[in-house]
Structure formats: C-alpha cells, structure tokens
Design goal:
The longest helix is centred in the last third of the chain and has 15 residues. This protein is of the alpha+beta class and 279 residues long. The chain has nine helices and 15 strands. The N terminus is likely disordered. β5 and β6 form a beta hairpin.
C-alpha cells in the first residue's frame, strides 16, 4: 500500500466548528426560531434566517474529571485538554434517539451557548429521521415542553427540510437522503410525502464496509486503521457515480484506473535514527 497523497489523521474530523461559520450572537434574537439538526454523526444548531449553522459538534457526552477531582460533562468528539475522561456516550443507538439523559446534556450545552439560563422563549425547529417511533417523539416533546418550557416546537423530517432548502421553489420530487444510519427514499408531491422507504444502510455502515475491505486487502499492514480514519477516507475519496456502468467499464483499462487512483499518507511514529542504529 503506497502512501503519499493524503495525511489521514483525526485533525480534520476533530475540527468540530469549521472555519467560516457565523459566531453566536451576544443575545438571542427575539422570536427567532432556534434550529437544531440532530444527527447521530453531527449536530448543527443555528438561528432561523441564517444560511449557516453557528454550532457544529459531534453528539458525544463525556464525563470528565479535572485535576482537582471535580466531575463535569463535556460535549463533542474529544474531552477537554488536561481532563481525564471516565466515560463517553452518544444519545443515539443504531441511529435512534434512545439515551435521553445524554441528549438533555447536549440541549443544556446548546442553550447555555445561547446564554439561556431560565427558560427558552424562542420557538424551536428540530429535525428527526423519517418514521421516528412514536414513543421517542412523545418523550422528546415532554422533555422540551416541561424541562425547557419551550413555547412552540416543530419537528420536521430531516430529508424534507433538506429538500426544501436545496429546492426552495420545488413542490414535487424524488428524494434520496443518505444519512449516517439510514438511507431514505421518498416521493414528495405538493410538499407532502406520498410514499417512502427507509433502508438500514448509511454512512456508518459504509465506513465499516470500507474498513473491512482495507483490512482484507492489506492484512499485513503494520498499523491498525481506526474507524475514524476509515470515515475520513470515505468522505474524501468516495463519490456517487453519475454513470455507474461507464465508471466500471473505465476500470478495465490502465488509463481509467490511473485517473481514479489515489495515494494515502498514513500517520506513522518517527523512528529515532540513533536508536535504530544501536539495534
């Protein structure tokens, strides 16, 4: 396996707030809806009317201990520097919102970032996967209304919100939403879902498949590839073919393989030359 083109490490994925995103306003705009795009891979939070989210973070809750032994909770992929992480949990299990205690800590993190200390007076728009179980929706609404006293809540299927954002004038269409845990194929007529099919395959399953394929192809590779590194390769190297048959036929020739071939620089520890010479 040749490596020279990409440096596959966690630095790209650990950048939880990409550059160029708007910062949080000092005060929450009055009557502006708060938008929370809940995802099992990333959560995005913003204001109604803003084109970009102002918060992007991984939905992981860490129980951390500082140097003085005090216990606190941190949100994101990694625990804060200088703190020891004792446990971590995602509120999602196989793509479904199951652990509401962890999700409540995520909501606390969001509203504290918005400088909300008492109650949330702004309406809330929150996304969810299609065909969400009813008991999960009921528990979610109970938490929002009773725990945070939110005046109005709108729960929208994630693929339908994406359809209207990318096609503001469209009322009809075929939507193929490739998520982290599920793939949703839906027919939309007059802005209403007429029929839909949810497939149990998404980005996490694709990452596992890619990782197993790499491990099978390079069984003697000296360093163990992590799922996060496989996910980075999936997001940067893989693509959806516009013409699958033509792309496959092009791989039958050397020129076609050369066009799509890429090289990955895998991180490896530096070897002390003096120590290596002594060996």
């Amino acid at each position: 396996m040749t490596f020279s083109k990409w440096n596959v490490d966690r630095s790209e994925l650990a950048n939880e707030v990409p550059e160029g995103l708007s910062k949080l306003k000092k005060t929450l705009p009055k009557n502006a809806p708060i938008l929370i795009d809940i995802g099992s891979w990333q959560c995005r939070v913003g204001y109604g009317g803003d084109p970009n989210p102002c918060m992007v973070f991984d939905p992981f809750v860490h129980r951390v201990n500082d140097k003085n032994g005090a216990v606190s909770f941190s949100i994101g992929r990694n625990a804060p520097q200088g703190a020891s992480k004792s446990s971590s949990r995602s509120p999602f299990d196989q793509g479904l919102l199951i652990h509401f205690t962890s999700f409540e800590r995520i909501l606390d993190h969001v509203f504290e970032s918005f400088k909300v200390s008492d109650k949330v007076s702004n309406p809330l728009i929150i996304t969810q996967p299609y065909m969400f179980p009813e008991y999960i929706r009921e528990e979610l609404l109970e938490m929002l209304f009773e725990g945070y006293r939110i005046p109005r809540v709108c729960i929208v299927p994630d693929f339908l919100a994406s359809f209207k954002f990318n096609n503001p004038e469209a009322k009809d269409g075929l939507v193929i939403s490739f998520g982290n845990s599920f793939t949703t194929i839906a027919v939309v007529l007059d802005c209403k879902v007429q029929s839909a099919k949810v497939l149990d395959f998404g980005g996490s399953q694709a990452t596992d498949l890619l990782l197993k394929m790499i491990q099978c192809k390079y069984p003697n590779f000296p360093v163990k590839m992590t799922p996060h590194q496989a996910q980075y390769i999936l997001m940067n190297a893989c693509y959806v073919a516009n013409d699958y048959k033509s792309d496959i036929e092009a791989l039958e020739h050397a020129d076609g393989i050369k066009k799509v071939d890429f090289v990955v620089q895998y991180p490896y520890p530096k070897v002390d030359k003096q120590l290596e010479a002594e060996r």
